[in-house]
């Protein structure tokens, strides 16, 4: 079930989460045993350090460009692009510039 977001309305997903100086802002849309969906806004130079997810993680960049390191390989992902980070593979996310993304993890 979706939460923290309007239903039955056309939305621009990038507008559903705001930047904050020196922060990573997140907004959870779905969280259950099968699926997690979260919007993120990264300020420049903010990062989520290396970790692994318990499911396949799909990132779609909504604005700007993020740097993703997956299994030691670096990817620059820009607005409109998607990257899938496989389950149990270590990955990290870095704000190359300010950027927004939608993270969907399927368990």
CATH superfamily: Jelly Rolls
Proportion of helical residues = under 10%
CATH class wording: Mainly Beta
CATH 2nd-level architecture: Sandwich
**CATH-assigned fold name:** Jelly Rolls
Topology as a string of helices (H) and strands (E):
EEEEEEEEE
Instruction: For the largest sheet, list the strands in their spatial order.
Output: 1-2-9-4-7
Task: Please count the beta strands (DSSP E, at least 2 residues each).
Answer: 9
Low-confidence stretches: none
Roughly what fraction of the amino acids lie in strands?
A: over 45%
Figure out the total of helices.
0
- Average pLDDT, all residues: 97
Helix/strand-derived class? mainly beta
What is the 3D form? globular
Radius of gyration: 13 Å
Instruction: Give the tally of structural domains.
Output: 1
Largest sheet: 5 strands, antiparallel
Distance between the termini: 16 Å
Task: Kindly describe this structure.
This protein has 107 residues and is an all-beta fold. It has a single domain, classed as Jelly Rolls, CATH 2.60.120.10. It contains no helices and 9 strands. It has a 5-stranded antiparallel sheet, with no helix packed on it. The mean pLDDT is 97.
Features:
single chain, four-stranded antiparallel β-sheet, mainly beta, RmlC-like_jellyroll, five-stranded antiparallel β-sheet, 107 residues, Jelly Rolls, Cupin_2
Strand-helix topology:
Layout: E1 24-31, E2 35-42, E3 47-51, E4 56-63, E5 65-70, E6 73-78, E7 82-85, E8 91-94, E9 99-106
Antiparallel strand pairs: 1-2, 2-9, 3-8, 4-7, 4-9, 5-6, 5-8
Organism: Vescimonas coprocola
Protein name: Cupin
Domain Cupin type-2: 40-102
